Amino acid sequence: MVESRAPARPDGRRAHQLRPVTIEPGWLPDAEGSVLITAGHTRVVCSATVQEAVPPFLKGTGRGWVTAEYAMLPRSSPQRIERERRGPGGRTQEIQRLIGRSLRAVVDLAGLGERSILIDCDVLRADGGTRTASITGGWVALALACDRLVRTEVLERSPVTGSVAAVSVGIVDGAIVLDLPYAEDHRAAVDLNLVMTGTGQYVEVQGTAEGEPFDGRALERMLALGRSGIRHLTRVQRQALHQAGVRLRLPG
């Protein structure tokens, strides 16, 4: 059952409020594009690397590729996380694929040419929402890298066709709330991750009932709350690009 009035949240926010979000461009000067994204206590460094090569299945097609890698530093959480020395585990692979799919949704791969852009997302501190922060910050790093390809005359125009951002929504203590920190996420009855473009189109919706099932009305309310959060994140992304001197012509 979803309550009409939300109880107090651990950090004092209202149900519809995001944690304070900042995106700082140029965090790693040697990367073609990089940012530090902070959402509450969650901090993720996102960097973009341009490679003049593509996976074997794209060789000779004239099309490029965008992919992602994700990792959590050992002390990004209260308990030390073991390094994945034998390759990414199941959760890590799932997150990497989600980030890659989300970013490719707003890139003209033919316009990128036969080259790849690898987005590395490294979690410095984890307090919920690391995958959504990785997508939101990863897009800015990608846009910065594509802008550099244009400025160095490798490409005539940026292959970025739009923006993409992500946010979490959930049902906690019977209330629908936006942008869950760990204190809420680990006990949420419903956990939903929403990925959307800056023009309001859905890229991915991942929703799971951890306890009782939820109905269509609750889903619509969660989607509406998520959309409002995406609109704010889109503004923060564009402000970060403006700060870096990038003028992308984006829809919306």
Short précis:
This protein is an alpha+beta fold. It has five helices and nine strands; from the N terminus they run ββββααβαββαββα.
Please render the helix and strand layout as text.
Layout: E1 21-25, E2 33-39, E3 42-51, E4 65-72, H1 90-104, H2 109-112, E5 116-125, H3 130-151, E6 164-172, E7 175-178, H4 182-185, E8 190-197, E9 202-209, H5 216-243
Please, could you describe this protein's structure?
The chain has 252 residues and is α+β, with helices and mostly antiparallel strands. It has a single domain (21-78, 91-243), classed as GHMP Kinase, N-terminal domain (Ribosomal Protein S5, domain 2), CATH 3.30.230. Helix content is 29%, strand content 27%. It contains five helices and nine strands. The strands form two sheets. The protein has a five-stranded mixed sheet. Strands 7-6-8-9 form a four-stranded antiparallel sheet. The radius of gyration is 18 Å and the shape is globular. The protein starts with 20 loop residues before the first strand and ends in a 9-residue tail after the last helix.
Specify the CATH class.
Alpha Beta
Count of DSSP helices? 5
Number of domains: 1
The secondary-structure class comes to alpha+beta
Shape: globular
Which architecture per CATH? 2-Layer Sandwich
Strand order of the largest sheet: 1-2-3-5-4
Mean pLDDT: 94
Could you tell me the CATH topology label.
Ribosomal Protein S5, domain 2
Rg, rounded, reads: 18 Å
Q: Main beta sheet, described?
A: 5 strands, mixed
Strand content: 25-35%
Alpha-carbon distance between the two ends: 36 Å
Estimate percent helicity.
25-40%
Low-pLDDT stretches are: none
Order of helices and strands: EEEEHHEHEEHEEH
